[in-house]
Amino acid sequence: MSTLTTHTTASRDSHSLGLCKFNTTTNAIEVSDGSNWQVYDPDTATGWSGSNTYSLNFDGTDDRLDASSVVTSSATSGTISAWIKTTSTAYQAILSTADTSGNGTWGWMAVYNNKLRITFRESMGTVKIADGSTTINDGSWHHVVAVSSGTAYNLYVDGSAETLTNSNNDGTWFGDLTSLTSTNIGSHVRVSAGNFFSGNIDELAVWDSDQSSNISTIYNSGTPGNLLPLNPNHWWRMGDGAEGGSGSTVYDMSLGSVNATIVNQANFDNTTAP
Q: Which class for 216: exposed (0-12), middle (13-18), buried (19 or more C-beta within 10 A)?
C-alpha cells in the first residue's frame, strides 16, 4: 500500500493537465481531490516496514490463500518471486491461477520432484513446462523466481539461474490464458483444491514484466528486502503487511491491492526467511 501526501493549492503549477499533473519540482505525479493536490510519496510508502518478522505456515493438507484473479489480460510476460521452506516430497503449489469451472486452463509455480517448476495450460491444450535443477525441499529457506520473457521461461534459485529441463518451454504467461477466475497461494484450485503446500511461504510478489535483469536486486544477497522500487503488481508479505501478523487477510502491499483470504487456518509464523 502507498500513501498520499496532501499538498496545498499553492503547489499547483502550469504543468497541470485536467485533474492530474507532473510536478517538475518534486518529480511526482499529483492528482487533484477538488481542493488539494495529492501526490504519491515513495518515502512514506507503508508496504515496507524495514523488517521481516513473519512468514505464513501451510499444513500441506487443506491450508491456502484465496484471492481474485491477479492476471492482467494484456500481460504476456511476467515474474513470480517468493521465499519458501519445505521438506515435503509432494507436488505442491506456491502460486496458481485457474478457470475453476474445469480442469483445462491454469498456470502455476510449484515444487515438483523436489525442484522448482513453472507450468501453464490453455483449454485442455499442450502443457507448457519448465523444471529447475536445484533441490529445494531440504528444509532450508530458498528464494525462487519464475520468469517468462514472453517466448521462454527462466527459473532462478537463490539468485542463480537454473539449468532447465522439458522441451515445451514457450513462455506462455497468465495473460495468454482465458477465463481465469481465481488465484490461490499454497494450493492449486481448479474444480477442487489440491496440491497443498507444506511449509512456509514468505514475501510473494508478482510482476507483469520480465524481471530477469533485477534478480540480484530481488534476491538481495539472501535477505528479503524492499520490493516497492521495482513496482511489483502484487506483493503479499505474509504477516508483515497491514495484517501485522494476525487476522484472516493477507494484504497486497503493492498498488495492485488484491488482498488474499486465509482458508483453513494457515498460521502466521515468526519463522522468517533469512
A: exposed
CATH architecture, range 55-269: Sandwich (2.60)
Give, in order, the Cα–Cα distances in Å from 123 to each of 51, 102, 127.
42, 9, 10
For residue 174, the 8-state DSSP code is G
Per-residue DSSP letter, 215: H
Q: Which spans in the chain are helix H?
A: 215-219
Q: Computed over its alpha carbons, how large is the radius of gyration of the chain?
A: 19
Tell me which DSSP letter residue 35 carries. S
Q: Establish how many alpha carbons lie within 13 A of residue 160's alpha carbon, considering only the half-sphere containing its beta carbon.
A: 7
Domain range list for the chain: 4-44, 55-269
How do residues 100-115 score in pLDDT, each as one tens digit? Answer: 877 788 889 999 999 9
Pairing of strands 188-189, 193-194: antiparallel
pLDDT tens for 22-43 read 544 434 445 555 545 444 444 4
Predicted TM-score (pTM) of the model is 0.82
> Rounded to whole angstroms, how far apart are CA atoms 45 and 34?
23
